[in-house]
Design a protein that fits this description.
The complex is a heterodimer of chains A (286) and B (281). Chain A has ten helices and ten strands. With 286 residues, chain A is an alpha/beta fold. Classes of the chains: A alpha/beta (286), B alpha/beta (281).
Amino acid sequence: MDKFIEIDKIAYDYNRLDEEGNVEGVNRALDGVSIDAKRGEFITILGANGSGKSTLAKHINALLFPAEGTVTVDGNNTADEEKLLEIRQCAGMIFQNPDNQIIGTIVEEDVAFGPENMGVESKEIRERVDESLKAVGMYDYRESSPNKLSGGQKQRVSIAGVLAMHPKCIIMDEPTAMLDPQGRREVIRAARALNDVEGITIILITHYMEEAIYSDRIYVMDAGRVVMEGTPKEIFSKTEELKSHKLTIPQVTAVAVALKEAGLNLPDGILSRKELVAELARLKKE
Amino acid sequence: MDIEVRNLTYEYDSGTPQAVRAVDDVSLTIPGGQFVGIVGHTGSGKSTLVQLIDGLLKPTAGSVYLDGEDIASRKFDRKHMRSLIGIVFQYPEYQLFETTILKDVCFGPLNMGLKQEEAVNAATDALLRLGIPRESFGASPFEISGGQKRRVAIAGVLAMNPKILILDEPTAGLDPGGREEVLGLLKSLNESGLTIILVSHSMEDVAKYVDRILVMNEGKIFMDGNGKEVFSHVEQLEEIGLAAPEVAYLMKAVHDAGIPVATNITTAEEACGEILRALKN
């Protein structure tokens, strides 16, 4: 299989500084982490605060470099300095706070910033901006000021800004943490559409279990290591193991698990409303 | 301590063409000891409303009364009020600054004029209530986990011994374990008599923990009731950019599939009991 992103046994240390700025010790944030993603895959990374998710994400577009191990993106090793520009254009990144990522005074100017910086021809910039805004459903707002947008809309503009650079992969680090329910839905819908329609590889980091159920595979991190890996069905069937890593299961799954414990004949790993309703309807007929 | 808000209005850029009415003629009463959740989409006026209640913003019109006293009145002791109402802003851990956890939490009480020893007592009490063990009091607040940092920051406000605690998105960015931890602690603080006002985007959290939900939209109170009442109006909530807890949607779908369950259900435990009941009949 074509491994688009391949992270092989990487380690990363943060230096602990004392008051004078001398190195006091090191904290190992990543400890022998290996993950991979195929081209066009939707991967979710779950893990408690401080488990190393964001540190890992920053390795994929070469914002950080591993102390040990290798990171390869689309065949390029991030240790190869000549390939850095290529890697960063190939893997775009979205962060938690949309307000920190928007710099333009008009939506379309903001989206044009990336391709302009890459030296794309102005006619093509125009096309890319329009395309990207359409892909996230923000084309109608192209002449608005970003200040007037809701959190979810701002975050979609940030995504359009990354899209306009024509990345093959987008890494989203808790893109919905600061959004209201509607905004959360908009952003996740946009991410799924980019994955389905444009075939862009998505790496989503989140604390909301509900957002993980549509991914192809999930990695769970704890204390700098990968502790679980599998499809959403496999991962969310292991309630106790997830709890031991300070995580939980989606609400629908929680209801299904409780019903099963109360004696109903239900399969493991029910994730969506539809699945549970279908199972209950079946039970009712019997 | 009761809060009463009467015809409260607040305009940003008042008197200019850009004037925006963030809070529009709001009246409500929050009796002492209640656990209130305020929900609403971004820009609905939630944060402005709590800042008016705390006296951080001066209303364009209307008044706020604490136990019947107008907080805008000259006789009103505003400094005292600051210690009666504690406010925890979004991402409060960004405001941690001291070299040890204990020193950081002492900052508020010392500023209020407490003696060193009293301040240490107040801080110790607050930290213990928030589940920070004594052994870690000497640690740097920058070397603990995100959930712990959040709790230390909340302890910093609690140490001033407020009667009312207002929190703006206290669980944003926390992992599920950390969220449960913080919300469970708020519930126990509320049970010990503290009034709690929780501004939140998480319908699941609000459904599970609060007594009363205020839904804000365009500066007005759009709905006011308990979880069951509010979340039975799914369509109206969606129209204003909100949603019901996932379980409410599930119960509606189960009902539509011909299983006669009640649909005013907001937590997973209730949902399980209700489905079992309906299937047995």
